[in-house]
Design a protein that fits this description.
- With 263 residues, the protein is mostly helical.
- It is built from twelve helices and no strands.
- The longest helix is centred in the C-terminal third of the chain and has 43 residues.
- It is elongated and about 90 Å long.
Length: 263
């Protein structure tokens, strides 16, 4: 479980509810299924109109992953690539063909296969950078879904409030009921604004960070395979890849050629 994400959501909700209770309110005043249905149903419908259904489903899966334990695979990838560098240096890069079955990362497996097949470093770089760009382009739609939902939900909350006011204003004979009805009508607005700023927009931001980490891991992999292909000393490979693991945001693949010729 990702403690930061879970604690963040719980803290935000607890602060709002505590503030309500301190001001003399009650949970009954804001727990309105009709308002929730309008806000969540309307927001989901608007998002599904804007994005394809498979993308929306992928976004929900990513949202669940945000709250799960987040494993950083940079150190593991670094160790594996350094092991490959040592083996390639002692037995030749063709010997890595025997290790393909134990490579679980499709990106690393493709890069090693290209290297073993004798692909030129410049050509291998082009092929794998296209893969990185394609992955980034495909995944950038997912945080965009939550950003859009964060924009839709406050407006839909206002629609819910107006619908409630229409119902209240249709019967002004009971002044006490009118006051209670007006207060209840604004619950939809609270839902819309709260879910946008506590759930949707923060989720979009966190998913962006996760996707950036995925891209950085692929950049690490590309630099490592290029270094192996060009015969870099394994110790220098480890030092070079450590920049990705220990530097925020990682280095860029374009920095590889300067170090690749070292032995």
């Amino acid at each position: 479980m990702d403690k930061s994400s879970v604690i963040g959501v719980l803290l935000a909700i607890a602060a709002i509810v505590t503030g309500l209770l301190i001001e003399g309110g009650s949970l009954r005043q804001i727990l309105q299924p009709t308002a929730a249905m309008i806000v969540f149903g309307g927001t989901l419908g608007a998002v599904m109109l804007q994005f394809p259904l498979p993308t929306v489903i992928s976004a929900f899966k990513k949202a669940v992953q945000v709250f799960l334990n987040h494993k950083k695979d940079g150190d593991q990838a670094l160790k594996l690539i350094v092991d490959f560098a040592n083996k390639a240096r002692s037995s030749g890069i063709v010997s890595l063909d025997q290790d393909l079955d134990r490579i679980h990362d499709p990106f690393l497996k493709q890069a090693i296969m290209l290297a073993v097949d004798g692909t030129e470093p410049s050509e291998l770089r082009k092929i794998m950078e296209i893969e990185i760009e394609k992955r980034a382009e495909d995944q950038e739609r997912i945080p965009a879904i939550f950003e859009s939902a964060g924009g839709f939900s406050p407006t839909i909350g206002i629609i819910g409030a107006v619908l409630g006011l229409i119902h209240v204003m249709s019967n002004l004979s009971d002044i006490a009921a009118v006051g209670e009805g007006i207060a209840g009508a604004f619950v939809a607005t609270i839902y819309g604004v709260a879910v946008a700023n506590i759930i949707f927009l923060p989720l979009g931001g966190r998913i962006k960070l996760r996707l950036r980490e995925e891209i950085t891991l692929k950049e690490l992999t590309l630099v490592g395979v290029l270094a192996i292909l060009e015969g870099m000393n394994p110790k220098l490979v480890k030092e070079r890849l450590s920049e990705f693991v220990h530097t925020p945001g990682g280095a860029k693949p374009g920095a590889a050629p300067e170090a690749a010729g070292a032995t």
